[in-house]
Amino acid sequence: MKLSQLITRRNKGKAAESLACHHLTENGLRLIERNFHSRSGEIDLIMQHENTLVFIEVRYRKNNDFGGAKASVTPAKQQKIKKTALYYMQKKGREFYARFDVLAISGEDKSLTYEWIQNAF
């Protein structure tokens, strides 16, 4: 893979996360943290909805070939997100209600579609 392709992919990922954050904020969630890292993995967005912490995996796909964006959140990826979320909650030293959502974005530019899957796993 060429470096230019990698940079473009990263830029698209960051842009998708920004779009997702805006979309979710408009739907009543409040941003707590972006791109939280631990040894187990990364969580794209950590947001709050009422008294619940919401750990959100953002996926973008140009089209639905190979199952689309939501199909790309594999059981292995789900486990990494769960471990990272547990670490986050332990680090904060408080107990929270928690849920795991996926925001799948597909399409291009003016024809983007959002599929927000609450309690995805």
Describe this structure in words.
- This protein has three helices and five strands, in the order H-E-E-E-H-H-E-E.
- The chain has helices spanning 3-26, 68-71, 75-92, and strands at 30-37, 42-49, 52-61, 97-106, 113-117.
- The termini are far apart.
- The protein has one domain: Trna Endonuclease, Chain: A, domain 1.
- The model has no long low-confidence stretch (mean pLDDT 87).
- The protein is α+β, with helices and mostly antiparallel strands and 121 residues long.
Q: What is the strand and helix layout of this fold?
A:
Elements: H1 3-26, E1 30-37, E2 42-49, E3 52-61, H2 68-71, H3 75-92, E4 97-106, E5 113-117
Parallel strand pairs: 3-4
Antiparallel strand pairs: 1-2, 2-3, 4-5
Overview in brief:
The protein has helices at residues 3-26, 68-71, 75-92; strands spanning 30-37, 42-49, 52-61, 97-106, 113-117.
Task: For the structure shown, list the relevant keywords.
121 residues, alpha+beta, Trna Endonuclease, Chain: A, domain 1, five-stranded mixed sheet, 3 helices, 34% strand
**Which strand order does the major sheet show?**
1-2-3-4-5
Largest sheet: 5 strands, mixed
Strand content: 25-35%
According to CATH, what is the topology?
A: Trna Endonuclease, Chain: A, domain 1
Question: What integer value in Å does the Rg equal?
Answer: 14 Å
How far apart the termini lie comes to 32 Å
Query: Architecture in CATH?
Result: 3-Layer(aba) Sandwich
Structural class: alpha+beta
The domain tally reads 1
